Amino acid sequence: MFDWLKEIINLLSTPSISFTLLAVIIPFVFPPTDWFEKWHRRLGLHHLWSIRGGWGLFGLITAFLVFGFFDENFGKILSKPDNVPIMMLIYFVFFFVWLSMHSAYANDARLARGEKVEEDYGPDEKVLVWPDLVYIELTALVLMTVFLIIWSVGLPAPLEEPANPSLSPNPAKAPWYFLGLQEMLVYFDPWLAGVIFPTFIIVGLMALPYIDDNPKASGYYSFANRRVSIFIFMFGFLALWIFLIVVGTFFRGPNWNFFGPFEEWSIAKVVPLTNVNLSEYVWVKLLRIGLPSHWLVRESVGIIMLLLYFGVIPVVLARGKLRGLVERLGPTSYALIIFLALAMVFLPIKMYLRWTINLKYIIAIPEAFFNI
Amino acid sequence: MNIEQEESGAASPIKRRRFFSWLTIGWISFSAAAGGFLTMIIRFLFPNVLFEPPQSFKVGFPGDFQINEVDERFKQSQAVWIVRTNDGIYALSTVCTHLGCTPNWLITDSKFKCPCHGSGFRKSGINFEGPAPRPLERYKITLAEDGQIIIDKSVKFQYEKGQWDSPEAFLTV
Fold first, then answer.
1. Which site among B95, B117, B127, B128 would you substitute to test the A interface, given the most A Cβ atoms closer than 10 Å to its Cβ?
2. CB neighbours of A275 closer than 8 A, spacing ≥ 6?
3. What pLDDT band is residue B13 in, cutting at 50, 70 and 90?
4. Are A216 and A360 found together in one domain?
5. Which of B79, B116, B118 sits opposite A257 (nearest CB)?
């Protein structure tokens, strides 16, 4: 029963397909331009942020999880105590995205009618920190503590055998909040995916107040006034972080192979993969002259490609589409923004290169422990 | 008190020059004390005793190892795989070169597969799938006088540095 449905879902969950679907859907759900906005309305996607749409999405997610719970294989993953936070994450991400978009659309409609936004109570209305805010915080703190105690008593952390460096569990999974990083590590060298990219994420988030000079929608929800920023953030957050965590939790099984949600986690699953460096593609397969002995010559193609990517694209964009942005922000802020944006887009590019042509590293210098 | 008085030092109980020498002494002793504490803290990071099995150990006679088999007997205790091919024997490190997990030997696929990020290595130790940037390391392997194999983990041979050609990286039998 429902086997055909499970097969379809398994197929759609393959990272290359599911990521592509997500990347295509996100600009229609959070439209950054007029063209996407037109189709957003035409496809009726703005109803997602109505109250009825919210309940509909909630029902859809819950129905899928209940359906999955009764499946032999997916049920095992869903009922694992370790994965409870991921279930909460799915609902929380959905709820807060829905809440903010719902409020933003309500405010946009008010602003379009020439009314004040919902959060604007006028200059005389104010809420005191003491006692109003502090009481709310105290209540939240007590409730959260109660919740954590009930959770930890109800689902105790599993005690496993003493750590043994010669025995890695299979699959060996990081804590849930690191599973996005672990998924990135599949595509990148450890120091890049484990050190450089997380630093970029943190530095980029810290730089947001300096990057985003838009005074509109400050202190109240609004989508129309900052649709490009919201689209970029949502792409980075949903597609490059939440999605990777969900893939790492639900879809990675023994030997870190990919498994569909309704597929059995079999250790014997064989996925034939032979990853090839860019240098091998160029020197061995294309030119047929063998790898040059010096690493600088060997990796010159990759180095040039990366220099073009990070050096030429910003200049071309600055002279073309993003001319207005450069004039408004100045060259330094522009350079910072475009570098962070290109670094962010670099992750899906590398993922696609791995999925399509089994590319291992664009630059591979194992002699100096430097791989990109 | 005006500036001239202060410069002549007539009104202050400590002369300007003396003040500076005291200041110098103070700073030197402060730096010495801080440096001493820092040294002690850094020293504290390193253990006094390290319980490790000896880096060099005997694993048996060459005849104990089957041709074309990966011997996993010393994986648990010494983190070494011993592989015998038609030509000889070599010792592979069980540490994945990506992030240091321990791969598993999959006999059906004839490969080492890491459970953490999916790196795969051939029986020779060469990396061919997943993110591992370089092959598994080999250890020094020699014959003792009594004919047993000695593996010395303090000497490593890395393929990407061309060290696998060394006679100590491969025991011809």
1. B117
2. A354, A358, A359, A360, B128, B129, B130
3. confident
4. no
5. B118
Domain boundaries, position A366: 278-371
Give domain status of residue A181, yes or no. Answer: no
B79 touches chain A (CB under 8 A): yes
Host domain of residue B74: 56-172
* Of residues B104, B106, B117, nearest to A185 (C-beta): B117
Helix (H, G, I), strand (E, B) or coil at A172: coil
**Nearest of A232, A198, A191 to residue A337 by alpha carbon:** A232
**Sheet of B127-129: strands edge to edge?**
B104-106, B111-113, B120-121, B127-129
**Which structure tokens are listed for A4?**
């055909």
Contacts of residue A170 in chain B, CB cutoff 8 Å? 104, 115
Residues A45 and A109 in one domain: yes
Instruction: Kindly state whether residues B38 and B62 are assigned to the same domain.
Output: no
Residue B13 domain flag: yes
Same domain, B109 and B148: yes
Residues A146 and A230 in one domain: no
Q: How many structural domains is chain A composed of?
A: 3
- The C-alpha atoms of residue A30 and residue A237 are separated, in whole angstroms, by 13
Name the β-bridge partners of B156. Answer: B139
- Tell me, yes or no, whether A91 and A223 share the same domain: yes
Claim to verify: residue B35 and residue B114 sit in the same structural domain: no
Per-residue pLDDT of chain A (372 residues; tens, 9 = 90+): 688 889 999 999 988 999 999 999 999 999 999 999 999 999 999 999 999 999 999 999 999 999 999 998 899 888 888 888 889 999 999 999 999 999 999 999 999 999 988 888 888 888 889 889 999 999 999 999 999 999 989 887 777 788 777 778 888 888 888 898 999 998 988 888 889 999 999 998 998 888 887 888 888 999 998 899 999 999 999 999 999 999 998 999 888 889 999 988 888 787 777 888 888 888 888 888 888 888 888 889 999 999 999 999 999 999 988 888 888 888 888 998 899 999 999 999 999 999 988 888 898 888 777 888
- Supply A319's token pair: 């002279």
Q: Could you report the predicted ipTM of this complex, rounded to two decimals?
A: 0.77
| Same domain assignment for residues A213 and A251 | yes
